[in-house]
Amino acid sequence: xxxxxxxxxxxxxxxxxxxxxxxxxxxxxxxxxxxxxxxxxxxxxxxxxxxxxxxxxxxxxxxxxxxxxxxxxxxxxxxxxxxxxxxxxxxxxxxxxxxxxxxxxxxxxxxxxxxxxxxxxxxxxxxxxxxxxxxxxxxxxxxxxxxxxxxxxxxxxxxxxxxxxxxxxxxxxxxxxxxxxxxxxxxxxxxxxxxxxxxxxxxxxxxxxxxxxxxxxxxxxxx
Length: 223
Description:
- The chain has helices at 14-20, 26-38, 54-63, 69-77, 79-108, 112-141, 151-173, 178-215.
- It is mostly helical.
- It is elongated and about 55 Å long.
- The protein starts with 13 loop residues before the first helix and ends in an 8-residue tail after the last helix.
């Protein structure tokens, strides 16, 4: 723990600084503790307080590109990028088919088995893309989840995963009617659409950054 937690360099009250100071609020400390539990510090020789806070995340997102040159090279070299590129549209197609089948059942009362099977297939694809996506993030960014470049996308992915898992639990345990179960599935699908839009936006950002990098002259060469 950093000694600055106990000693104030300018004589001010450290308790007041902890409650009001930027990056040391209760919410920031909670986020930092969560990161400490999920992500090990990547700098083995690092000393002091290394926790990420909401303020530091905002600074990182504003100051750094989506990919550093090294991260972009790892992204382009790893086969997990192709795996994600294949699984993402497959999952979206499964979502579209399942969404129609669920609406059909809720509207007509027919096709419960087909709608349920389609949701289970969509859920299995989600689990698969979550696992492979975590591996991809580890290869590219050095951590399985919550890399600063994709922090909020990963946070919302946890919401999507929780809702799909809740649906799966109700089916396996026999809780609720099929209509109530599919209402949970629709909530999961709504969250999935938002999450997919987040990743599409990041894909657009990555392409724009790639175009900008390709158009910029090499170091030492005048524009």
